[in-house]
């Protein structure tokens, strides 16, 4: 049997098979731990549904799972709905995702030296998403000036959107801080599955725009 057929057979054996992970024991030796096959959450909830104590344990573990949001697939699905920019004394600026650029190509504009924070809304369906996080990387004139990475947590499927609000920050101030910025926003989980990756541009100005 040639190498290609061996690889094909190995791939077939792992499809739908148990998931394996490596962990270290107390002496630092690595060992393979078989976690079992990943199955749809809907199927997991149906198992032992007549066992009252087990059903209550699952409800306590999973929280209020919306069964209408459970699909037949084992893969979770995350949809980022919008980004809201919050700034004291300013109306909330709600930006649908993907961003809609203005006539200058900017998704939004900020005033230099001003307080602001970001708020994201997103939904989770099909299955539990573990270790959801986002990164937001910003460049000015080709130089990276910010690389933010934030862990959001683990979320179960539900119809109502989840809301995450980041910490308040201050935009850079001064003439050299003003101008055009490029950025890349990415949402992904512990397994490396990417749910959103989008690039956008924004502007920092001396004053807030008259309308935004």
From TrEMBL:
Q: Which UniProt keywords apply?
A: Cytoplasm
Basic and acidic residues bias spans: 1-17
Q: Which InterPro entries match?
A: Ig_E-set, Rho_GDI, RhoGDI_dom_sf
Q: Does the keyword Cytoplasm apply?
A: yes
Location in the cell: Cytoplasm
List GO BP terms, alphabetically: Rho protein signal transduction
Give an example GO cellular component term for this record: membrane
According to the UniProt entry, where is the signal peptide?
none
**GO MF term set:** Rho GDP-dissociation inhibitor activity
Positions of the UniProt region annotated as Disordered: 1-36
Q: State the family named in the UniProt similarity comment for this chain.
A: Belongs to the Rho GDI family.
In Swiss-Prot or TrEMBL terms, this protein is called Rho GDP-dissociation inhibitor 1
Q: Which organism is it from?
A: Miscanthus lutarioriparius
């Amino acid at each position: 049997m040639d190498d290609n057929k061996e690889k094909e057979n190995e791939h077939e054996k792992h499809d739908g098979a148990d998931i394996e992970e490596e962990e270290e024991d107390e002496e630092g030796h690595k060992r393979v731990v078989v976690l079992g096959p990943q199955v749809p959450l809907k199927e997991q909830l149906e198992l032992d549904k007549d066992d009252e104590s087990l059903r209550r344990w699952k409800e306590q573990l999973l929280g209020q799972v919306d069964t209408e949001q459970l699909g037949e697939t084992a893969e979770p699905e995350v949809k980022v709905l919008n980004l809201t920019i919050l700034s004291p004394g300013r109306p909330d600026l709600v930006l649908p995702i993907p961003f809609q650029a203005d006539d200058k190509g900017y998704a939004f504009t900020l005033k230099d030296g001003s307080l602001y924070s970001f708020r994201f809304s997103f939904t989770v369906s099909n299955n539990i998403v573990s270790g959801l996080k986002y990164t937001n990387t910003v460049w000015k004139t080709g130089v990276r000036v910010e690389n933010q990475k934030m862990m959001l947590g683990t979320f179960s499927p539900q119809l109502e959107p989840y809301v995450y609000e980041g910490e308040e920050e201050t935009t850079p101030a001064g003439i050299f801080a003003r101008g055009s910025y490029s950025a890349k926003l990415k949402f992904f989980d512990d397994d490396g599955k990417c749910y959103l990756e989008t690039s956008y541009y924004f502007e920092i100005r001396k004053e807030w725009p008259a309308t935004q």
